[in-house]
From TrEMBL:
Tagged with keyword Repeat: yes
InterPro entries xref list: Ion_trans_dom, TRPV
Protein location: Membrane
GO molecular function: monoatomic ion channel activity
Keywords carried by this UniProt record: Coiled coil, Membrane, Receptor, Repeat, Transmembrane, Transmembrane helix
Official protein name in the record: Transient receptor potential cation channel subfamily a member 1-like
One GO BP annotation of this record: calcium ion import across plasma membrane
Coiled coil: 1190-1224
Principal subcellular localization: membrane
Domain Ion transport per the UniProt entry, residue ranges: 856-1119
Membrane topology note: Multi-pass membrane protein
Residues that span the membrane, as ranges: 851-869, 881-897, 917-935, 955-975, 982-1001, 1053-1072, 1084-1109
Assigned GO CC terms: plasma membrane
Organism: Gigaspora margarita
Length: 1229
């Protein structure tokens, strides 16, 4: 086949050297089968042509294959098709024009190109061709245009296994350039030039790295390298944002390459692979197109819109297999934002161009008419947008050019959408914010300008009209100059068929006059000004405040927004107070938000406290309606959900707190399970107030935990088999699944030095990266089948639960670190579920064990230094002893500072924790005795004994983090906490008896243990001492003692109150020696006290205590207390051992965690739940998709109570049958 080149242009007219351009959007168009977000592949359906002699060789626009624009729209690169003549056809029989027609069936295009042209964009918005590269210079026969820089560098994608790209310098003759990496066998997943001039390259093989290259002396030199654990695809924006997709855990993470800051995490539905992403011009919205592939064939796909503010999914649009999205663009950012979708039918290659409301993705409208307005725009084209303009670059009126999208038609954008395209979706208009601010400031300059004045009220028939694009608003004044005067608004919609205006569906008329209670009724509502906004909402400025009214079909007119005028008159009642007539009625802030319809946040405190305020005769509660709309609409939840929840909690409005939480849950879950995996981030509204809910709404929180105890990340039950959600894996139960990335530079100086040496060595020998080709060898290691377990993947549905605030001060964090929701929400109910145990396992394996062993090692050195001196002091010289003691003091200061930081952070928790008493006692005793030893050469034995005991007990307590010992520590302290009140009662009883016996048995006179006293006091120790009487020869015992054993301090332990407590404790244990010296026959009071004490305390209380301990031990779930114990250890590590930036490491603190559970364990647990053996607050919710995945019958098994009841009924029936049989037998006889 003979190739047909684009060098025969005799039939074409001469074109000017410059192609005129308006403003436009340059972006990238992606071939889905290459999964490249920066390329436009154009079908060969262009039939008309126009040549140009402005460059080196005239170009045929009909043969344009791809278009790519540089980041700052300085250059545009185009490739041209290499067209073959089909066999059996003679090209000479056709005209030159026919030979070059890409649609002619005589010719075919197989992906090869003839050349690439580079065009510069001049200041006057004209295209000037500056250079071209012929196809024979490109090694790859079928290259795909990948990127073009603002420095005239062009990159092509190739089909090579390694080094799958080629880069050319288009400034001269198209010199081939190379990029050098430390590892030569690299697979480039994606690359892009940024506005800052850098080249960002994402590698997925053999390792996962992100490289940043800078242009220095006409060479691309590596400046930064980021090492990542794993990602499937990378998407790079011209603003320097990196979006990584992980197809193991199906998450998108967005990073800022320049600051290394994590920005957003988004979930997509399990089994779907991301093909396209697009960020809007303001950086607030993220559009994601993902496809479900079955045997490499697209079966269905989804279009997602996420808020980059918090990663919450705003809207989803589903496609079937008959439509594949090729590209998408955000357009008209300030005029009324829309998402332009370019898709095709894979079965007939039919092209479709649609517009959607990016906030709802509902009711798409065809946009083909948009490209066929005054300018005829055909494939190929791309759109390059900024906040002010949308530039279309492509074939415009049969020539390559640029035009401004919003200048393609004569009317304004919103009118064109409504009347020409039939788009009646809601419009969020950025320009309205500035418009409203200007209206308010204008009115503040003229305080007497009122729309309705008391002395000059309009007549009833006067109905001011405020027309919009789609709606018309009318105001009317009812019963003027009377006590029943009221202001009404009416909304009418344009009937598209008849052209008439008709009342809107639902409430078409509403009274806007508030029914104030005294003293507010003395001030009447006055309208200062009204205006219909660009999105057809009605803005109303009044002495009551700023009100925006909208229409929600089928509800009708609704109050959409309130802000400004009313003040809080009374802190307790929050009654509305209009203030003095001369006061500034609006208090407009200067820091207005900069995004669509984002006027200052509504006065939620006033709205909530006055939600029952009524308006008009119907007594409609507009504030209550506004709150209901806000907590049920995703847009408002995303933008105002956090502040609404905080306000509900601040005002202690428990009903609306639970109502809002339940709404968030219902928007995320259904009876089948997750509505969509992408909705999981919506639960962050609840998680953000987790500690407050734990304190003030524990019942609801317990219910929420039961509803989210076992959640599968898969939302579509039809994909269970293809999703690998249940699979055989050689992993432990409740181990985490997947990996998580942290964007950080880990390249050492040695690695950088070696990379530089390799770079210059390769240049010296003339070897490029593409010369290396090493086929990866498969691993011979095979897992034994016996190691695999049937597992299922579950998700911890607590987004941002473990995360710390993004914004922080390093010094403040070192002094008093900010807690996460995890560290401030350690509760027993939380740790009854697998979610929490899986979270603990993830934290312990990721960083906890490492930090714990380091801490233990430091303490072990502290322990050994001190105990070596006090135990083996004879083996050390004085100098060595002093050195070890000084080392002990230094390590003691380290531990003491650590304890002090814990006390400062939360002194209440510190005091309540029993571990801290051992810690502080061991540290202080050790440091004090070390100081004394250094000063005196020795220390009191009792002090070193106590210090050693405390040190070794603390060493023992380190074992509590390991399950084989930790469960027993948890049991000991858990039971002790639960029996604390009973122990308090026993302590008071011991105190009371000790005090009584002290008063009864203490000596009445002074005495000395060194000199005998001859008193008749029966409590005198000398009278209680043991005496020895002589025995005569005849065996008679003398009544007068001849010897006496000197008494000691234990002869009468009731002499002092302190020893009385010890004596009563000995009596409690059954030792009666403290009262053995007294004759009970002569002391009736002592007899009564001892009888009472022995019966009630020793017999009754102690046996009761033993029984209570037995019950508590059996009722205590040691695993739950052990997990709480381990969570406290992890919280301590995070807050007091980690540096502030380490607490923000997303590899350690991801927003969403997936974990693996053994199916056998899950089935057993489900069975226990179904028969009613769950010990939590409420039986956990088991979704239908979960039961289907683990193959458990959905019919619940009868509980034990139901079984017993059924058996009793059967026995009763059997007894009645036997009685009837006996009666019948008796009658027969």
């Amino acid at each position: 086949m003979d190739p047909i080149y684009d060098d025969d242009y005799d039939d074409y007219e001469d074109d000017p050297a410059h192609v005129s351009i308006d403003t436009g959007y340059s972006g990238y168009y992606q071939d889905p089968y290459y999964q490249d977000p920066s390329r436009l592949t154009v079908p060969g359906d262009i039939s008309s042509r126009r040549g140009s002699d402005s460059g080196i060789v005239p170009d045929n626009v009909d043969a344009i294959a791809e278009i790519v624009c540089s980041p700052n729209m300085k250059y545009v690169a185009t490739t041209f098709k290499y067209i073959y003549e089909k066999p059996g056809e003679k090209s000479g029989e056709k005209s030159s024009a026919e030979q070059q027609d890409a649609e002619d069936p005589t010719y075919e295009y197989d992906g090869k190109i003839s050349k690439v042209s580079l065009w510069s964009v001049t200041e006057t918005k004209e295209l000037l061709k500056v250079s071209e590269i012929m196809a024979h210079k490109i090694i790859e026969p079928e290259p795909k245009l990948w990127a073009v820089s603002d420095d005239k560098y062009i990159i092509f994608r190739t089909n090579y296994f390694y080094y799958n790209f080629e880069i050319f310098d288009a400034k001269g003759e198209g010199e081939h350039k190379d990029l050098f990496f430390p590892n030569p066998h690299n697979i480039v997943n994606n690359l892009a030039f940024t506005k800052s001039g850098n080249l960002v390259v994402a590698l997925t093989g053999p390792t996962h790295h992100i490289y940043i290259f800078n242009l220095r002396h006409n060479e691309w030199i590596e400046s930064t390298k980021f090492e990542l654990s794993y990602f499937c695809d990378a998407f790079i924006t011209v603003e320097g944002k990196l979006i990584l997709f992980d197809d193991q855990i199906f998450q998108l993470t967005k990073w800022d390459i320049s600051t290394l800051a994590f920005e957003t995490n988004c979930m997509i539905d399990w089994c779907y692979k991301v093909w396209h992403v697009e960020v809007n011009q303001g950086g607030e919205l993220l559009a994601v197109y993902a496809v479900y592939l079955h045997e490499d064939t697209p079966k269905k796909s989804k279009l997602y819109i996420y808020s980059l503010k918090n990663g919450i999914n705003m809207a989803i649009h589903d496609y079937d297999e008959s439509k594949i999205v090729d590209s998408m663009y955000f357009i008209a950012y300030e005029a009324g934002e829309r998402l332009l979708i370019r898709s095709r039918n894979p079965f007939n290659d039919e092209l479709s161009i649609e517009l959607m409301d990016p906030f709802t993705l509902k009711t798409p409208v065809s946009a083909k008419k948009l490209l066929e307005s005054n300018e005829q725009i055909r494939d190929p084209f791309i759109i390059k947008s900024d906040k002010k303009s949308d530039n279309i670059i492509g074939v415009i009126n049969d020539s390559l050019g640029i035009c401004e999208l919003l200048e393609l038609f004569q009317t304004d954008w919103i009118t064109y959408l409504r009347k020409e395209l039939g788009d009646y979706n809601r419009i969020f208009v950025l320009s309205d914010t500035e418009k409203i601010a200007k209206m308010i400031n204008d009115e503040l300059d003229d305080e007497e300008k009122y729309f309705i004045d008391k002395e000059n009220s309009p007549k009833i028939e006067d109905r001011p009209t405020y027309p919009g694009k789609f709606l018309t608003w009318r105001l009317s004044y009812k019963n003027p100059n009377t006590s029943g005067s009221a202001i009404e608004i009416e909304a009418q919609v344009l009937d598209q068929i008849s052209g008439d205006w008709r009342p809107v569906e639902g409430e078409s008329t509403r009274t806007v006059t508030p029914n104030f209670q005294p003293p507010e009724h003395t001030r009447k509502l006055k309208i200062i000004q009204c205006e219909c906004l660009n999105n057809d909402d009605l803005l109303m400025l009044s002495n009551f405040g700023v009100l925006i009214w909208t229409v929600y079909p089928p509800k009708g007119i609704r109050l959409h927004y309130y802000w400004g005028r009313a003040k809080i008159r009374n802190i307790k009642t929050f009654n509305l107070y209009l203030g003095h007539v001369n006061e500034n009625p609006f208090h407009l802030p200067t820091n207005l938000k900069t995004y669509a319809n984002a006027f200052p946040d509504s006065k939620f405190q006033i709205i909530i406290k006055n939600k029952n305020l009524t308006f008009g005769e119907k007594k409609d509660s507009y504030f209550k309606e506004l709150l209901e709309d806000y907590i049920s609409d995703k847009y408002f939840i995303i933008n105002y959900g956090s502040i609404l929840m905080d306000t509900f909690l601040f005002l202690k409005d428990d009903e609306w707190v639970e109502k809002f939480c339940q709404t968030c849950y219902d928007l995320t879950f259904s009876a089948e399970g997750l509505r969509s995996t992408s909705d999981i981030q919506l639960l962050s509204i609840i998680i953000e107030v987790f500690p407050q809910l734990l304190q003030r709404h524990p019942i609801y929180l317990a219910r929420f935990l039961s509803q989210t105890g076992f959640v599968m990340p898969l939302a579509d039950s039809e994909l269970i088999l293809d999703s690998e959600i249940a699979s055989l894996l050689p992993t432990q139960h409740l181990a985490h699944f997947g990996t998580y990335n942290q964007l950080s530079t880990k390249t050492s100086l040695i690695e950088t030095f070696v990379a530089k040496i390799m770079y210059y060595w390769n240049k010296l020998i003339g070897k490029t990266e593409s010369d290396f080709d090493t086929t990866p060898q498969p691993s011979d290691k095979e897992e034994s089948a016996s190691e695999f377990e049937a597992t299922i993947k579950l998700i911890i549905p607590f987004p941002k639960f473990v995360n710390y605030p993004k914004n922080y001060s390093t010094w403040e964090e070192l002094r008093n670190p900010s807690p996460s929701y995890f560290t401030s929400s350690i509760d027993l109910e939380l740790y009854k579920y697998w979610n929490s145990e899986a979270l603990i396992n993830f934290k312990w394996k990721t960083y906890g064990l490492r930090y714990y062993l380091i801490s233990w090692s430091i303490y072990s050195v502290f322990l050994c230094c001190y105990t070596s001196v006090v135990t083996l002091n004879d083996f050390f010289t004085t100098g060595e002893q002093v050195f070890l003691l000084y080392l002990s003091i230094g390590l003691g200061f380290y531990h003491l500072i650590h304890e002090f930081r814990q006390f400062i952070h939360d002194h209440n928790d510190y005091i309540r924790s029993p571990w801290n008493y051992f810690d502080i006692g061991a540290i202080i005793f050790t440091m004090l005795t070390s100081f004394i030893w250094i000063k005196n050469g020795t220390a009191p034995t009792w002090a070193t004994t106590i210090a050693t005991l405390l040190l070794e007990l603390k060493f023992l307590f380190y074992f509590r983090a390991f399950r084989f010992v930790g469960v027993y520590f948890a049991m000991i302290f858990g039971v002790a906490k639960r029996a604390y009140s009973f122990l308090t009662i026993i302590a008071f009883v011991v105190f009371a008896f000790a005090h009584s016996l002290h008063l009864l048995l203490r000596p009445s006179a002074t005495y000395s243990l060194d000199e005998p006293s001859y008193s008749d006091d029966p409590n005198d120790p000398w009278n209680l001492a043991t005496t020895y009487n002589p025995v005569d020869n005849d065996g008679t015992i003398s009544t007068q003692p001849s010897l006496i054993e000197p008494p000691d301090s234990s002869t009468n332990m009731f002499t002092m109150f302190g020893t009385s407590l010890l004596a009563v404790y000995l009596l409690l244990t059954g030792d009666t020696s403290p009262i053995g010296s007294w004759s009970l026959q002569d002391n009736l009071t002592l007899v009564v006290l001892m009888f009472t004490f022995s019966f009630f305390t020793t017999i009754y209380f102690m046996n009761l205590f033993i029984g209570l301990l037995s019950n508590e031990i059996s009722d205590t779930n040691n695993n739950e207390f052990y997990l709480i114990q381990k969570a406290e250890i992890l919280a301590e590590i995070e807050l007091f051992y980690m540096l502030p930036h380490q607490r923000r490491n997303k590899a350690w603190f991801p927003e969403i965690i997936i974990y693996i559970a053994h199916v056998s364990e899950l089935r057993d647990l489900i069975r226990e739940i179904q028969i009613g053996n769950w010990k939590g607050f409420e039986k956990p919710f088991l979704s239908q998709i979960l039961l289907k995945a683990v193959q458990v019958q959905t019919d619940e098994i009868e509980s034990e109570e139901e079984t017993i009841k059924k058996l009793k009924d059967d026995m009763r029936e059997l007894k009645e049958m036997v009685e009837r049989l006996i009666n019948n037998t008796g009658q027969a006889s």
